[in-house]
Predict the structure.
Amino acid sequence: MGERLIVGTNDLDPDRLSAWLAQSLPQLSGPLTITRLSGGQSNPTYRIDCASGVYALRRKPFGPLLPSAHSVDREHRLLSALHPTGFPVPKPFVLCLDESVIGSIFYVMEFKAGRNFVNGQLPELEPAERSAVYHTLVDQLARLHAFDPADLGLSDYGRPGNYFGRQIERWTRQYRAAQTDNLPVVERLIAYLGASVPPQTRTSILHGDYRIDNLIFAPSAPEAMAVIDWELSTLGDPLADFAYLAMHWSLPAGSAAGLDGVDFDRTGIPTLDAMVDRYCALTDRDGLPNLDWYFAYNLFRLVGIVQGIKRRIIDGNAAGAKAETAAAQLLPLADKAWDFARRAGAPA
C-alpha cells in the first residue's frame, strides 16, 4: 500500500486535513489513517482509511512546478463530468483550493480497490483472461472517445483543432523550462515533429496517459472498475490516446507494459492489428494511418515528462522513490522516439 506518512514540513499535516474534512466532507468520520501510495512520478496520491470507509486524496507535488503541470483541479472537473455517465472513474467528493490546508490544492475521491496490472504480459492470468483484459482496455478507450465534450459541459476543456501542433509546442516549452542538458536528438525531434504535423479529423476527450496500469480491474473479472490518473487529460485528436496505447506493442517485452517479442498466439494477448481492428469497429473508422509518427510524438512527450522528473530531482522535489530510475530513461526515450521519426520519414 505504500509507506506510512511521516508528518512534517515535507508532507501533509493530518490534523489540519482532518479539521478541514470534518467541515467539508462530514460523511468522512472517525480517526484517519493516511498512507501515501507508491508508484507514479506526478501527483502524489494518498489512501485515507477511517470509520466511514476508504477514500483517496490527490494533491499537487511539493515545491516549484512547471507552468500548467499537475492541475488536480482539472482532474476533479473531469471526474465530476464523467462519473454521472457511468464511465468507470472514481467518484469525486470535494475539491480544496485552499493551499494552507496541506500546502497545495487537492481533491478527495472514492478509493477503488481491485487489480492493477503493471506487467503488460499479464503473467498471472490465463490466455482467455489476457484477451478479455486487453479487449476491455480498448473498449473503454473507444467509449471515452465517443463522448461529445459539449454534452458533458467540457467544450472548453481544451482548444479545438491542431491538437498535435499545439501539444508539440507545449511539450517543447515544458522541456525547455526543465532542461538540464543539451541533447541533439531532442533538438532534431522538436524540429521534425513541428514541421510534419498530420491533419486532425476528430476531437474527443483524451485521457493523455492511457495504458494498462492506469486501469483498476475487478478482483475476479476483466471488468474495468476505474480509469485513473487523469493529470494529462484534455480535448484533442483521439489518435493521440490510441497511438500511446498501441506504442506498447513496439516496446520491448519486459519493460513494464512492453509487448514487442510476445508470442501472441500462445499468450492470448491480441496483436496490434487486432487491437486496431477492434478500435476501428467501435469508433466507425475504416482504418488508421501509419502510427510511426504518432509513436515518435508520444515518446517525445514522455521525454518532456521525464525531463520534468529530472528537474524535480535536482530541485529536491521528486514525488516518488523511483524518480532516479525514471530520469535515467531520458536519453533512451529520445533515441527511441527518433527511431520512430526516421521510420515515419524524418531525414537522416
Remarks:
- Residues 1-10 have pLDDT under 50 and may be disordered.
